[in-house]
Amino acid sequence: MSDSLSFALGVGTGGLPLTDQVLQDLQAALKGGDATATYINDQRVLQNFYSWLAGQPNNQAWTASTDTQGNPVLFAAQASGESQIALVIRPVIDQEVIGGAKPASVITVNGAAYNVVGAFTVSLEYDETPAWVIKTPLGLADHIALDLLLHASWPDLLKPMIAGFGRAVQSCFNSIPNVADMTDAQRAAYDAMSDAERAAYDAAAEGAVETSALSLVVGAGAAIGLMGLLLLPAVIDILSHTTCQSVQVYNLTPYDVTWDLAYVDHGAMCLAPADASGDQNTLIPATWTDTQADGSTVTVASQANFGFTSSSELAGIGYVLTFTLTDPASGAAIDTAAAMFDIPLDGSNSLAAATGPLASASDWYSDNAGSNKVTQMVQTGKGYTITITYDYLTGQHEGPDGEVMFWYNSLIAFTPTS
Predict the structure, then answer these.
(1) pTM
(2) Looking at the DSSP assignment, which residues form a beta bridge with residue 91?
(3) 5, 120, 308, 360: which has the highest count of C-beta atoms within 10 A?
(4) Which residues of 134-166 are buried (b: 16+ CB within 10 A; e: fewer)?
(5) How many other CB atoms are found less than 10 A from the CB of residue 202?
(6) Based on the domain organization, do 194 and 73 belong to the same domain?
(7) Are residues 244 and 388 located together in one domain of the fold?
(8) How many distinct structural domains can be found in the chain?
(9) Residues 214 and 244 in one domain
(10) For the purposes of burial, counting CB atoms within 10 Å of the CB of 78, is it exposed (0-12), middle (13-18) or buried (19 or more)?
(11) 265 Cβ partners below 8 Å, 6+ apart?
(12) Are 386 and 337 in contact (CB under 8 A)?
């Protein structure tokens, strides 16, 4: 039976599992100022873990194991005081889809359609509590009947797939010192494939018919979300500009959010979400559900990471991001929103938030730059609020690598209103 099966992985969606503690921490961080700074500083523990993981030779930090159903699992763990941080890669099979109880969603990989029958998740866990997760859909070629999977030996099917997926994830850490943008990240993930996986990927990209016994198109999409979380410090280190800003966007609403860099007054975007081809991915999906190892579920807020830098030592950073909120079921537009950040070469930072359409992003920037020298602003739209923050308004602060520089962190959150 396995000779007739053809699988592929889609692009991963990363986000924040909204456990009670995580939701409490995020709500506190959205107050701005010291609260935002504390939230970002707490992430240093995770960055230290990433650095440790990247420094382990020959991926020896990773251990192969099995879950309670006997399916393969990969994990890497490190002690942190009396606690433990772990990165866990596990498969989740959707038995309702396979059994016909609900319709399968469809993904397109290199021009071919696949019915989603499960996912691989990469979960960052602190004392077995999820702190961050990527969910990458696992699809079966749509010309294959789903009921062929009813009696499949999942451990046998998943073992080669999770091995390839694991290599893509491991490549994220191994390649960080050598990448400067998402295109480099995509190339690093491609280089991490086995010969068979690379051949399958190339054949699919060229439109060839899959004939292998068990084909897996790994691609950079399997790991690109993780790169967005890890890449900014490396990019900033390469650019070495005097003023930098990290922006984390969280979507806690039931609406899809699409972003656009509508206006740049000074500076440049140096990091943005990307798809498997290395092109910008403008979609920040609505909240979704992740299945934990014990079978329980948790709501996940989708996350997107951005980086901005001054274009020279003679200028700061200033720009407008606009957002469109849509109903994922109907595709109908719900509302629009905007965020403005102004980080001048001299003086205090300022920000502004708005809901509803802008007549002119450049005019709105000019009207607000230098006006709202505060660390938080909240505006209410149609069924949601947008909150934007700074950690600091002036001065030099520690960046991710501990170097003191004009480094600022901001949060943007879309939260539902009752």
Answers:
(1) 0.84
(2) 120
(3) 308
(4) bbbbbbbbbebebeebeebeeeebbbbbbbbbb
(5) 14
(6) yes
(7) yes
(8) 2
(9) no
(10) middle
(11) 318, 319, 342, 362, 365, 369
(12) yes
- d(CA 386, CA 377) in angstroms, rounded, equals 8
Which residue, of 198, 228, 258, is where some domain finishes?
228
Residue type, 243: T
Residues 284 and 202 both lie in one domain: no
Q: Are residues 331 and 404 in the same domain?
A: yes
Q: Do 125 and 238 share a structural domain?
A: no
88: Cβ–Cβ under 8 A, 6 or more apart, which residues? 73, 74, 75, 121, 122, 123, 125, 293
Rounded CA separation 124/48 (Å): 13
Q: Which one, of 325, 333, 318, lies nearest residue 379 by Cα?
A: 325
- Distance from C-alpha of 314 to C-alpha of 46, rounded to nearest angstrom: 33
CA–CA dist 322, 338 (Å, integer): 4
CA distance 350 to 389: 10
Grade residue 249 by pLDDT with cuts at 50, 70 and 90: very high
The CA–CA distances, whole Å, from 110 to 35, 107, 137, 267 equal 43, 10, 14, 35
Quick one: how far is CA 226 from the chain centroid? 6
